[in-house]
TrEMBL record:
Record bears the keyword Lyase: no
Cell compartments where the protein resides: Periplasm
Alphabetical list of Gene3D superfamilies matching this protein: TolB, C-terminal domain, TolB, N-terminal domain
Highest classification ranks of the organism: Bacteria, Pseudomonadati, Pseudomonadota, Gammaproteobacteria, Enterobacterales
Gene that encodes the chain: tolB
Keywords tagged on the record: Cell cycle, Cell division, Periplasm, Signal
SUPFAM superfamilies tied to this protein: TolB, N-terminal domain (SSF52964), Tricorn protease N-terminal domain (SSF69304)
Cross-referenced InterPro entries: 6-blade_b-propeller_TolB-like, Tol-Pal_TolB, TolB_N, WD40
Main location: periplasm
UniProt protein name: Tol-Pal system protein TolB
Annotated signal peptide: 1-21
Task performed by this protein: Part of the Tol-Pal system, which plays a role in outer membrane invagination during cell division and is important for maintaining outer membrane integrity. TolB occupies a key intermediary position in the Tol-Pal system because it communicates directly with both membrane-embedded components, Pal in the outer membrane and TolA in the inner membrane.
Residue ranges annotated for the TolB N-terminal domain, each copy included: 24-124
Length: 429
């Protein structure tokens, strides 16, 4: 077993300049009916490409599924500043918002990333936002993602998640420690390994403040649940009950972890108090109940159960009581995740030999297919509810990204190995 100091590794990670790298998310499906927007290549000085800035912003906005950035070769005019905008030319292209900006050296070796968001919907150019991010060169992408977050929130009223992290498990064939828990930016950049093991790792789950990650490990034999501190790198065992320990999920307030334990025979859902370690049983069935997911109120849990023969998704109160079945379409449904606002859930649905990601409204129970692939697994919803990351491809699995409205689909190319069990980290305030 190897543990790695996460904060040290994050610092090392940012020392590498990746200004000239390409966006890691590869687009696999086009965006339809999303809002058109123009992101003009930033003017630049000091050896930093302004085009790199605009391409990162374009990718962020496109990935959300809410925007369709205009391609540079479709621009009706070349502009460097708001004063040069001819609103009529851009509105003819369906554009009502334009982002322009500048990148230049600042004091102490920093970079100043300045931008302006211009609204032209009225027929004239009106300044909506003007701001500047000053960052060290090693934090270049973070600074650009901050611009994307600000623009996204201004235009949608929803907090951006472009500075968030994802965690996932990678199986490699390169060393004795072939099973790795890795963390990266949401778009696959700045990937680091924070834990290695010679035996399988599974199911990472972030604490709401981003300081801890719970995961399942088989390093010492039977499955146990581990908790890793992302600030110190310290790893400790928190659940090693008889038989199976699995599927940890932090509660919305971070005070509890739901998990699936089989200490009484069948798998059932339990909650553990993070501070005291006290465990409380939630379900008590002879069937197998697993894959708990919290509702935003912290009072209810969705889970997968085979009580009707095939896996389906149910809901129960954390204080116990009867469970309500939530899924009826498809041969079997499992691995639910609840949106942060409680308006929808996503899960894996199996039908006709295919295993795809679907979304179900929690107000009218309408169902929408989000993917058309065959072997999707382990969805995780972004903390603002706009995107979902999941694993796909079975044995040769990689990570897919789809917008919650289904308009955008992309994939994070593997950096080597099988990628599984993605978990979207929180917005760090």
């Amino acid at each position: 077993m190897k543990k790695i100091n996460v904060m040290v590794m994050l610092f090392i990670m940012f020392l590498t300049s990746i200004v000239n790298a390409e966006i890691r998310i590869e687009v696999t499906d086009s965006v339809d009916a999303a809002r058109p927007i123009a992101v003009v290549p930033f003017t630049s000085m000091g050896g930093v490409s302004g085009s790199d800035v605009s391409e990162i912003i374009k990718s962020d906005l496109r990935n959300s599924g809410k925007f369709q950035p205009l391609e540079n070769n479709e621009f009706p005019q070349n502009i460097n500043s708001p004063a040069q905008i001819d609103p009529a030319l851009w509105r003819a292209k369906g554009i009502d918002s334009i982002i322009v900006g500048q990148v230049q050296p600042a004091a102490d070796g920093k970079l100043a990333i300045a931008y302006q968001l211009i609204d032209i919907s009225s027929g004239s150019a009106n300044l909506v936002i003007q701001n500047q991010q000053q960052v060290d060169k090693k934090w270049f992408r973070y600074g650009v993602h901050a611009v994307s977050d600000e623009v996204f929130e201004k235009l949608t009223g929803i907090k951006g998640v472009f500075r968030t992290k994802i965690a996932y498990i990678v199986k490699t064939n390169t060393s004795k420690y072939a099973h790795e828990l890795r963390v990266s930016d949401y778009d696959g950049y700045n990937e680091i390994t924070i834990h290695k093991a010679s035996q399988p790792l599974m199911s990472p789950s972030w604490s709401p403040d981003g300081t801890k990650i719970a995961f399942v490990s088989f390093e010492t034999g039977p499955s146990v649940i581990m908790l890793q501190d992302t600030q110190t790198g310290q790893v400790r065992k928190i659940a090693s009950f008889p038989r199976h320990n699995g599927a940890p999920a932090f509660s919305p307030d971070g005070s509890k972890i739901a998990m699936a334990l089989s200490q009484s025979g069948s798998l059932n859902i339990y909650t553990m108090d993070v501070g005291s370690g006290n465990v409380r049983q939630v379900t008590n069935d002879r069937s197998n109940n697993t894959q708990p997911a919290w509702f935003p109120d912290g009072q209810s849990i969705a889970f997968t159960s085979d009580k009707t023969g095939r896996p389906q998704i149910y809901r129960t109160n954390v204080n116990g009581g009867g469970a309500q079945r939530m899924t009826f379409e498809g041969a079997q449904n499992q691995n639910a995740q609840i949106s942060p606002d409680g308006n929808f859930m996503v899960y894996i649905s199996s039908q006709g030999g295919r295993q795809t990601l679907v979304s179900q409204s929690l107000t009218d129970n309408s169902i929408k297919a989000l993917t058309n692939t065959d072997l999707d697994e382990s969805p995780s919803i972004a903390p603002n509810g706009t995107m979902i990351i999941y694993s796909t491809g079975g044995y040769n699995s990689s990570l897919g990204v789809v917008s919650a409205n289904g308009r955008f689909k992309g994939r994070l190319p593997s950096s080597g190995g099988q990628l599984k069990y993605p978990a979207w980290g929180p917005i760090i305030k």
